[in-house]
């Protein structure tokens, strides 16, 4: 009888030893699930954009109302535009986010000033701003052949932002005069959420 209890005790001890040795190894191999890149709230969606890149590429997040707008991710740039396509009679409404990895805002400024002069008839003087982002702001509108503006006169804004790694983000907004208080105002609010993030 004592021998039977002794064998049972030895078996129990062996089981406990096996549990102590092997169970921690099983749990140590379980990986935590990856965190989701996108997080939704009631009115906005946060999209973290990670472009395939060299070491000089940095990342950003931006919030926008996904019921009104959609973000189209591209190889060279991302474009935010209306979720529903506009009728042909309306000029383009979009916000392009592009990262230039090897040129600073100061280097890009004269290039983009020339470009906006070609694209619009009446560019305004460049401003250094802290809102909605910190950087350079170029603004322009196009007049018709008589020098007047109309409801569909194209309007453009370009923001040049330091990416903190020797390059720049260039954000180009396009809309039209009648939409200045609609899409134009929305784009400004969206841009206020733009943040460069560490990856």
Topology order in helix (H) and strand (E) letters: HEEEEEEHEEEEEHE
Number of helices: 3
Q: Looking at the structure, what is the overall shape?
A: globular
Beta-strand percentage range = 25-35%
Which residues form runs of ≥5 with pLDDT under 50? Answer: 16-45, 49-54
Structural class: alpha+beta
The total of beta strands comes to 12
Q: Alpha-carbon distance between the termini? A: 66 Å
Average pLDDT reading: 81
**Fraction in helix:** 25-40%
* Radius of gyration from the alpha-carbon trace, in angstroms: 28 Å
Please outline the major beta sheet: 8 strands, antiparallel
Quick synopsis:
The protein has 199 residues and is an alpha+beta fold. Helix content is 27%, strand content 32%.
Verbal overview:
This protein is an alpha+beta fold and 199 residues long. The protein has three helices and twelve strands; from the N terminus they run αββββββαβββββαβ. The strands form two sheets. Strands 4, 5, 6, 7, 8, 9, 10 and 11 form an eight-stranded antiparallel sheet that branches. The model is unreliable at 16-45 and 49-54 (pLDDT under 50).
Detail the topology: elements first, then pairings.
Elements lengths: L1 H27 L10 E2 L4 E5 L9 E6 L4 E5 L3 E6 L11 E7 L4 H15 L2 E2 L3 E3 L5 E7 L12 E9 L5 E9 L3 H12 L3 E3 L2
Antiparallel strand pairs: 1-2, 2-3, 3-12, 4-5, 5-6, 6-11, 7-9, 8-9, 9-10, 10-11
Keywords for this entry:
199 residues, alpha+beta, eight-stranded antiparallel sheet, four-stranded antiparallel sheet, 32% strand
């Amino acid at each position: 009888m004592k021998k039977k209890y002794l064998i049972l005790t030895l078996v129990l001890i062996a089981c406990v030893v096996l549990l102590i040795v092997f169970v921690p190894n099983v749990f140590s191999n379980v990986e935590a699930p990856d965190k989701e890149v996108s997080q939704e709230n009631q009115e906005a969606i946060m999209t973290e954009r990670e472009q395939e890149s060299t070491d000089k590429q940095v990342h950003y997040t931006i919030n926008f109302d996904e019921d009104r707008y959609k973000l189209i991710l591209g190889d060279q740039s991302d474009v935010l535009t209306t979720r529903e396509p506009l009728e042909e009679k309306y000029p383009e409404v979009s916000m392009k986010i592009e990262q230039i990895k090897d040129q600073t805002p100061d280097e890009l400024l004269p290039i983009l000033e020339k470009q906006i002069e070609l694209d619009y008839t009446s560019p305004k003087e460049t401003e250094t701003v802290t809102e909605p982002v910190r950087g350079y702001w170029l603004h322009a509108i196009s007049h018709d052949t008589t020098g007047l503006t109309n409801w569909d006169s194209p309007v453009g804004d370009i923001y040049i932002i330091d990416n903190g790694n020797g390059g720049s983000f260039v954000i180009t907004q396009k809309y039209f005069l009648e939409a200045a208080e609609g899409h134009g105002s929305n784009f400004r609010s969206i841009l206020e959420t733009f943040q460069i993030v560490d990856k």
